């Protein structure tokens, strides 16, 4: 009967190669592999210890991009290097199929940093970054909002079903189970954070505006407005003023950055510090997203619940 197999059913269980999915960043890997199960091969383009802000494509990455049946990216300007790579592949082979999980998520994107309101003159002028190359570039860190994660999983399951219809039911069943875990993650975050007496926080780089807005945290500022660019003394003075005025009780570092500056700031201001994970690096595992978000919830609870 093999002669009747269509292209799609080449991927049927046991009869052909499994679809190769290439994700860009660890949260997307985590969602994609939770939905894929054993029906597809999911790989992540970025090594587990390299975040999207620092990443540079290597020649071997171009090969992986060419070989993928589906590339899953964040979008919103986070993966400029991917757009370039796909451009350079054009004409040499079939263009790879790309899903940006932010497709269809146009509502309420955040374009500006809250910290800009403090003192525009204190804004660093050197360096540039995807966040604020211009004011119309949205902040890309949507994955820290579990409601966004649910949207991304819907996009993923639709794409998986389309490239591998023979296993559509399996993908759907795993996606449905994962969606209910995301719903309970959201419920736990909301119930805890609602009860915090103090909701003012300062984070290291500009990664938490969507998370803060979702759960009513008051993100009063960030330490490094431009990732990897040392903030100026003037900027830090403005930030310190705001931390005192708003009664901020904790400044958060991130595992991807050197905590020295935050440690010094917290000592100078007599404010606690702790680590929140932006989930830009970490182990490539299906449970990575939930584990990281729940670890962050534990940290927030420890620092702000009383
Ligand atoms: Zn970031």
How would you characterize the overall build of this protein?
The protein is of the alpha/beta class and 306 residues long. It has 2 domains: 15-107 and 135-183, Nitrogenase molybdenum iron protein domain (Rossmann fold, 3-Layer(aba) Sandwich); 197-304, 3-Layer(aba) Sandwich (Rossmann fold), CATH 3.40.50.1980. Helix content is 40%, strand content 11%. It has helices at residues 26-36, 59-67, 80-89, 146-163, 168-194, 209-215, 233-245, 260-269, 288-304, and strands at residues 20-23, 41-44, 70-73, 97-100, 200-203, 218-222, 250-253, 272-275. The strands form 3 sheets. The chain has a 4-stranded parallel β-sheet with strand order 2-1-3-4, sandwiched between helices. Helix 4 (146-163) packs antiparallel against helix 5. It is globular. 40% of the residues are buried. Residues 53, 141, 205, 207, 227, 278, 280 line the site of zinc ion.
Main beta sheet: strand number and arrangement?
4 strands, parallel
What share of residues are in beta strands? 5-15%
* Total DSSP E strands: 8
| Distance between the amino and carboxyl termini | 67 Å
Structural class: alpha/beta
Alpha-carbon Rg, integer: 21 Å
Question: What is the number of independent domains?
Answer: 2
Q: Detail the poorly predicted runs.
A: 1-10, 114-134
The top-level CATH class of the largest domain is: Alpha Beta
User: What string, H for helix and E for strand, traces the elements in order?
Assistant: EHEHEHEHHEHEHEHEH
Strand order of the largest sheet: 2-1-3-4
Query: Can you name the CATH architecture of the largest domain?
Result: 3-Layer(aba) Sandwich
The fourth-level CATH homologous superfamily of the largest domain is Nitrogenase molybdenum iron protein domain
């Amino acid at each position: 009967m093999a002669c009747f197999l269509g292209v799609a059913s080449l991927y049927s269980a046991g009869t052909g190669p499994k679809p190769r999915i290439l994700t860009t960043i660890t949260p997307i890997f985590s969602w994609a592999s939770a939905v894929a199960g054993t029906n597809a091969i999911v790989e992540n383009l970025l090594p587990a210890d390299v975040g999207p802000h620092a990443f540079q494509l290597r020649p071997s990455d171009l090969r992986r991009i060419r070989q993928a049946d589906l590339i899953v990216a964040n979008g919103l300007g986070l993966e400029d290097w991917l757009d370039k790579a796909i451009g350079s592949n054009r004409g040499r082979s079939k263009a790879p199929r790309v899903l940006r999980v932010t497709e269809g998520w146009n509502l309420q994107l955040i374009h500006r940093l809250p910290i800009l309101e403090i003192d525009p003159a204190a804004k660093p002028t050197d360096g540039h970054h995807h966040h604020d190359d211009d004011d119309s570039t949205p902040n890309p860190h949507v994955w820290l909002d579990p409601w966004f994660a649910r949207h991304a999983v819907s996009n993923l399951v639709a794409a998986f079903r389309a490239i591998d219809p023979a296993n559509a039911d399996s993908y759907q069943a795993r996606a449905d189970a994962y969606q209910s875990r995301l719903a309970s993650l959201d419920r736990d975050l909301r119930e805890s954070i609602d009860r915090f007496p103090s909701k003012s926080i300062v984070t290291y780089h500009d990664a938490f505006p969507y998370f803060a807005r979702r759960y009513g945290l008051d993100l009063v500022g960030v330490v490094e407005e431009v990732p990897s660019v040392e903030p100026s003394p003037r900027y830090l003075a403005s930030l310190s003023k705001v931390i005192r005025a708003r009664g901020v009780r904790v400044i958060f570092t991130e595992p991807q950055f050197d905590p020295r500056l935050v440690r010094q700031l917290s000592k100078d201001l007599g404010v606690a510090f702790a680590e929140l994970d932006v989930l830009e690096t970490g182990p490539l595992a299906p449970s990575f997203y939930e584990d990281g978000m729940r670890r962050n919830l534990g940290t927030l609870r420890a620092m702000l619940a009383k």
